[in-house]
Write a structure and sequence with these properties.
- The structure holds 2 protein chains of 2 kinds.
- Chain A is 6% helix and 33% strand.
- Chain A has 1 helix and 11 strands.
- Chain A has one domain.
- Chain A is mainly β.
- Chain B is built from 13 helices and 13 strands.
- In chain B, strands 1, 2, 3, 6, 7, 9, 10, 11, 12 and 13 form a 10-stranded mixed beta sheet that branches.
- The radius of gyration of chain B is 19 Å and the shape is globular.
- The chains are: A mainly beta, B alpha+beta.
- At the A-B interface, strand 5, strand 6, strand 7 and strand 8 of A face helix 5 and strand 8 of B.
- The complex binds zinc ion (ZN).
- The site of zinc ion has 8 residues of chain A, from loops.
């Protein structure tokens, strides 16, 4: 087993996001450090990224609940090469997280794990930490809960 | 029920450029590479390039993420007079093996007579596929993925591989076996980019680009073009080569796979799969064949782990048993097919020969069924060719001697 050591999130000053009318409420909540999801106001099915129609009932009605900000690692990778030419190589851990307070599939988040890369495991409980990125937005990442 | 177009059309010509290490095809242009492959395919079939009257593409008629395959440009540059069909399967390399079905649709509908399918790829520094998602401009949807640093397809699929290892105990030894097997298959081939023997030590010392996948689990970054010509089985009889019949070709998939690793929303067991099972099930129903009847498997190998998952999804072994099946050595080439064995990517595949978004697999299938392959499987009758595990469509094609 390799010894990767501490993993950090991608540097926020290198991250830009774009929004559309359906995704913007997610990011506006994130700006206030509230983790939310796009939830169908008709049947309760959750989906990320937010999209116009509920795949279960085709409703266009959406609500944005406050979630606990915790979840479980569903899968992950460990990367060692910097994605950016002007940033030296560092260890980062992309994770797929099943988000607590959502139901069914489709409301996962893909984020970075911040902490000891050698400790990461499928099934690990995690909680959100916020990374400041460009243009005043905040990005949800996760650390061990 | 048998596929309505079973054996009604055939691949009658195949052509390719040399394969180049990434960027080294310059100063040739992608149009030039594609034109060379198309003209070679016509020469192979014994038809005039002006006989082409249809184009069946995949990958949205893209050529990598920055290039394009455009029918009007080809007509102008190659002197093609008139076309009655020009269409592409959507999304990316997943549809590659569906082009045979698309060409068949064109021909059986009476839209066209000689249909060409072509892919040219040139990866200059600004158009490398390996880091394409990291370089893309932010969109509302990729903003939920890109900030994770899953910068390329291999990074994305490493997450699927990890889940497979977690659920089924799959090991890196199995990934190594796939990579080494294909390297051995590439060694006698003049066309292959990687021909040196690969040792276990070398593999396990290779940098972990996205643990659990190392650099050698990633396919090559190469340039080149491959084209093939499809026509009716009737016409094929009068042409230069022995016809290779399109026994079945399907593309599609279910919502559970859907956007695949572009979103990571797939439930188990689809998450740790190739997404090919629905296509596989239809191909077997179309043909009455099973995996046991296939003589050579040309499985889309952008990443070693996805080959293992395709072996499961096509029923070469049970779901979750890919690790032991691969490690049994049954994928290795032997000129006479051994019981229970399935020679895999006998050309070396995209891991060792060249990566032209899957089209080298069609070329190898055609050579195997003509009996002219370098690593010839004796009396090969049925070849399975697959498109890439990727967002829908995935695709598969069974070719027959
Ligand atoms: Zn709903």
């Amino acid at each position: 087993m390799s010894n990767y050591g501490p993993a950090s999130a991608l540097p926020g000053d290198h991250i830009r996001i774009a929004t559309d009318p359906y995704t913007e409420p997610f990011w506006q909540a994130a700006r206030e450090h509230r983790l939310t999801t796009c939830r169908c106001a008709n049947c309760g099915h959750c989906r990320i990224p937010p999209t116009p129609y509920c795949p279960e009932c085709q409703s266009n009605r959406i609500e944005w609940p406050d979630l606990p900000g915790t979840g479980t690692i569903f899968s992950y990778a460990i990367c060692t090469k910097s994605p950016y030419p002007d940033v030296p190589d560092f260890v980062y851990v992309p994770i797929v997280v099943d988000i607590d307070g959502t139901q069914g599939h489709g409301a996962r988040l893909v984020a970075n794990f911040v902490g000891d890369a050698d400790e990461v495991a499928i099934g690990m409980k995690v909680k959100v930490v916020w990374t400041s990125i460009n243009d005043g937005w905040e990005l949800p990442n996760f650390e061990k809960a | 029920m048998a596929w309505v177009n079973r054996d009604k059309c055939a691949i009658v010509g195949i052509g390719a450029t040399p394969y180049y290490v990434r960027g080294q095809s310059w100063p040739q242009t992608t149009d030039q590479l594609a034109g060379e492959a198309i003209m070679a395919a016509c020469a192979d079939a014994g038809i005039d390039v002006k006989d082409i009257d249809g184009f069946a593409y995949y990958s949205g008629a893209g050529a990598g993420y920055t290039g394009k395959m455009d029918t009007a440009d080809f007509m102008e540059q190659l002197g093609i007079r008139e076309v009655g069909f020009t269409a592409a399967l959507t999304s990316g390399g997943g549809g590659m093996a569906g082009t045979g079905g698309l060409a068949t649709a064109a021909i059986m509908n009476g839209d066209a007579t000689y249909v060409v399918s072509v892919m040219a790829l040139q990866q200059l520094p600004q158009s490398r596929l390996g880091t394409v998602f990291g370089q893309a401009a932010p969109t509302a949807h990729n903003s939920f993925m890109q900030p994770s640093g899953l910068v390329g397809p291999g990074h994305l699929m490493s997450v699927l591989a990890r889940r497979h290892m977690h659920l089924y105990g799959t090991t890196r030894d199995a990934f190594f076996e796939i990579v080494q097997t294909q390297r051995e298959h590439a060694m006698p081939r003049e066309t292959a980019v990687r021909r040196k023997p690969l040792t276990r030590e070398e593999y396990f010392a290779s940098p972990m680009l996205a643990d659990p996948l190392c650099r050698l689990d990633f396919c090559l970054e190469t340039d080149g073009a491959v084209a093939f010509i499809t026509t009716t089985a009737e016409r094929a009889k009068d042409l230069r080569q022995k016809p290779v019949y399109i026994h079945a070709s399907r593309h599609g998939g279910t919502r559970a796979w859907g956007r695949a690793f572009g979103w990571m929303g797939m439930p188990d067991p689809t998450f740790a799969s190739s997404g090919h099972k629905p296509v596989a099930d239809r191909l077997w129903a179309d043909t009455g064949l099973t995996a046991k009847d296939i003589d050579v498997a040309l499985l889309y190998d952008h990443f070693s782990a996805m080959v293992l998952m395709q072996l499961e999804d096509y029923g070469f072994c049970e779901k979750g048993e890919g690790n032991d099946f691969v490690l049994s050595g049954k994928l290795r080439y032997a000129n006479r097919k051994q019981p229970g064995a399935i020679p895999l990517n006998t050309h070396g595949g995209q891991l060792s020969e060249a990566y032209i978004i899957g089209m080298t697999h069609v070329r190898e299938a055609v050579e195997q069924l003509r009996g002219t392959a370098v690593n010839q499987v004796e009396d090969a009758e049925f070849a399975l060719v697959t498109g890439g595990p990727a967002a829908i469509p995935t695709s598969g094609m069974i070719l027959r001697r």
